[in-house]
Design a protein that fits this description.
This protein is mainly β and 292 residues long. The protein is elongated, with a radius of gyration of 25 Å. The chain has four helices and 18 strands. The protein has three domains: 30 residues; 144 residues, Immunoglobulin-like (Sandwich), CATH 2.60.40.1930; 100 residues. The N and C termini lie far apart (86 Å).
Length: 292
């Protein structure tokens, strides 16, 4: 027993020396940092811009943390750039939109500076200096927050280490705001397929949100009310977007077997608005058909 203890103790010493010499691993990534500051995301209140409404607003609530418990906060600036997903427009540099001084921050429940920072579509569009034909629904405005400290240091997405952009800190500094528009009213057709033949294994499937009201569109699986397995390969559903709708968004929520799922969305006049799958992208879909 004593010899066994000696052997184990010797191995522990060797392992400790090796670890200290190499200094590799996540813990050293955590400890090897420059003391700075972050903007922790408390909530993303709205990340949609309606190009038909200049007053539609990007809004996020953040909490500032620095080495002096918020005393170094000077201001937070909003910058915008465009990510062109429809073809044609490139903005080489991000553009300043507006600034929120420290005086506009309140105190969070944990005693740190907190504020809701916002920018309207009109403000972001004007800052970019582009024309009306240079942006289309389906493009993204990338909204970046830059944190200015009283000692002259500036923190933004380029200075944020990967370890603070997610998880508890949730400090990405940058947010994608999808460009939408007031939709054309009418009946939209959703054709759905499941290659295995037992329907979709998902809680929601496709979610169409019309002015805040959700409509669930999915192929029922053979296990929650759909036809028996395994000849259930196709289904079609028609949904109506009423006249006067201000905003409609389409979101795909995923499936347990995404490689079996496909769907197509067609507008009231037969417009091809999207063909997705197998393995459709999860999240907001760039499905837009603007009112005339």
């Amino acid at each position: 027993m004593k010899n066994t203890i000696k052997i184990l103790f010797s191995l522990l010493i060797v392992a400790s020396i090796t670890s200290c010499a190499e200094e590799e691993g996540t813990i050293y990534d955590v400890l090897d940092y420059e003391t700075g500051a972050i903007l922790r995301t408390l909530s993303v209140n709205n990340a949609l811009f309606n190009s038909s409404d200049p007053s539609s607003t990007f809004s996020v609530t953040v909490e500032e943390q620095d080495e002096a418990d918020g005393a170094l906060l000077e201001s937070v600036d909003i910058y915008v750039s465009i990510r062109d997903l429809t073809g044609g427009t490139t903005v080489s540099a991000d553009k300043f939109v507006k600034s929120y001084p420290a005086s506009s921050f309140s105190t969070s429940p944990v005693g740190l500076p907190m504020a809701t920072v916002e920018a309207t579509y009109g403000e972001a569009f004007a800052a970019l200096g582009i024309g009306a034909n240079d942006v289309e629904p389906g493009d993204l405005f990338v909204m970046e927050l830059r944190l200015n400290l009283t000692d002259g240091r500036v923190f933004g997405k380029s200075s944020a280490a990967g370890i603070i952009t997610g998880g508890f800190f949730s400090s990405p500094f940058s947010y994608n705001a999808l460009i939408t528009c007031s939709p054309q009213a009418g009946d939209y057709t959703v054709d759905m397929q499941d290659s295995y033949g037992d329907g979709w294994q998902s809680e929601k499937g496709i979610v169409l949100t019309i002015d805040g009201t959700e409509i669930i569109i999915k192929m029922l699986s053979s296990y929650d009310g759909g036809p028996a397995c395994c000849g259930w390969t196709n289904a079609t559903e028609v949904v109506n977007i009423p006249v006067g709708t201000a905003q409609a968004t389409w979101d795909y929520t995923g499936d347990s077997y995404p490689g079996e799922v496909s769907f197509q969305i067609t507008g009231p006049g037969g417009e091809d608005l999207g063909d997705y799958g197998p393995t459709p992208p999860v999240g907001l879909l760039p499905v837009t058909l603007c009112a005339q």
